[in-house]
Design a protein that fits this description.
The protein is mainly alpha-helical. About 75% of the residues lie in helices and about 0% in strands. Helix 1 runs antiparallel to helix 2 and helix 3 runs antiparallel to helix 4. The two termini are about 40 Å apart.
């Protein structure tokens, strides 16, 4: 079941908040390392300095992990777009198979196809300009 735009926005906001918290935590940790290293007199024998050096040495590079997460989310977004485009293609091919015209002229039909593909690409439900109008009972 595809996600709605609101669900997608909530997931994106949650991910950005987690990344921000992780960056703040990492910044605070490195600030603590710098504060201790600036005031420590015995850097070679201080256990805290050794622990900080090991921590700095073995902390994974955050840019690689963040880039992987960004690419994974981008691939998920592109997969959703591809699924929506496939749905539009299937709908158009079924209409063609049944002989249902999209519009009166070739140019109008091309416009309908462009609008539907653009809607599928952007994930927004924009009103189809060639959809039949609902009856207006308030004349």
């Amino acid at each position: 079941m595809p996600l709605t735009n609101e669900q997608r926005a909530a997931l994106r906001a949650d991910r950005l908040a987690r990344v921000k918290r992780e960056r703040e935590r990492r910044t605070a940790l490195f600030a603590e390392i710098a504060r201790h290293a600036g005031g420590c007199a015995d850097r070679h024998h201080c256990l805290l300095c050794k622990a900080f050096r090991l921590l700095v040495e073995y902390v994974p590079d955050p840019t690689v992990h963040e880039e992987y997460e960004r690419l994974r989310h981008r691939l998920d977004d592109l997969a959703e777009r591809l699924e929506r485009i496939r749905d539009v293609h299937q709908d158009l091919s079924e209409n063609a198979r049944f002989g249902a015209p999209l519009a009166r002229t070739v140019h109008d039909a091309a416009w309908v196809v462009i609008v539907r593909l653009a809607n599928a690409w952007h994930g927004e439900e924009v009103e189809d300009p060639y959809a039949p109008l609902p009856p207006d009972y308030h004349i």
